Each structure stands twice: as C-alpha cells, then as structure tokens.
Write the structure tokens for this entry.
Amino acid sequence: MAISADTYENGYLLQPGTLFAALCDTGEVGKFHWLLYLCISRRTGYKYHATNQMGSIPWKYEYGPWDGPQSQRCITLTPIGKVEDWGARTPHACAEELHSILRNVPLITPPVDQSTHDRFTCRTWFRAAIRRLDGMQKYVQCPDVDLLEEKLAKMATAAELMNARDNAVAHPPTRIMKPTEFAAAWD
C-alpha cells in the first residue's frame, strides 16, 4: 500500500519542485538504500542514486523517473531542499539540471568520510551529493551532513519499527516526514 495522491502525512504534502531524501527498504531493519528524489507531481518524480545492482561491482550512478511515493520499497521521504526557479522552466529541464550536477559525484568514498565509512555505498554517495549541492549553494543547504544522515536514519528506522509494531501490510505506505533542522532549501 502506498500513499494516495491526496494524502498528507505529518501535515506535509508532496510539493512539486521539492528535493527529498528517500530511504528505501533493504530487507534489514536499520539499513537503507539512500537516494535523492525530485518531486515532479504528487505521484511521480526523478530518482538520483548510486547502485550496484544487488551486490555486483562496479557501482554506477543512476537517474530516471520514479514513482517514489507509490514505491513498495520506499520507507520515508524527507524534504531537504527545493528547485529555486521551479515553474520558470519545465519540470524535465529542472530534473536534467540536477542530473548534470549529480552525475559528476565520484563513485568513491570521499577522503572526509574514510574514517567513518570503510567502503563506498549508496550512503557515501548520498553524503557526497549533499556536500556537492551545499557547496554550490543550490537545492540543499546542509552545514553538517553527519547530523542529517543520523537524523534521516533514525526517522526511517522508527518508521520501520512502527510498521512492524502495527503489523503493517506487506508493503506499508511511504511516510512523508517533516523537514529536519539539518537541511533546508537555499533562500
């Protein structure tokens, strides 16, 4: 079961032009697939992430349409930023501009993360992508990616545990979370 197009969760609606952190189910509680999701409509958008196709090597960057709110694997969507000039360009042009930035995020563990992340994962790519956007002063303002990562992981773990406690159906709804204090759009 996924959210309906008109559903509010925690008082937040999927707003077109919003950039979300999406944490998805891996089958292991507390471990997630990390990606960025640009909302185009209340039902669909574009995903940006690093993937290794279920354990194969090498990692690759992937971008494309995704029905995030309807995905059976998406646990949480948390707003972390926005497209500054949404509405002035087509949604596809906005998605392509973000893609032109994120496709250049290296598929290696950045030196700044090597003491806490011993190997490259979608999570280390997510962290590097957030740093890239923050450094460009576009889409996401995030002065401390460690605090953002910790908060997102805690919220998604709590959502997983609530689903288990509530004996959620096989595919519980995606939860639209409140914005965190650790990431925001650039003004």
Residues 1-11 have pLDDT under 50 and may be disordered.
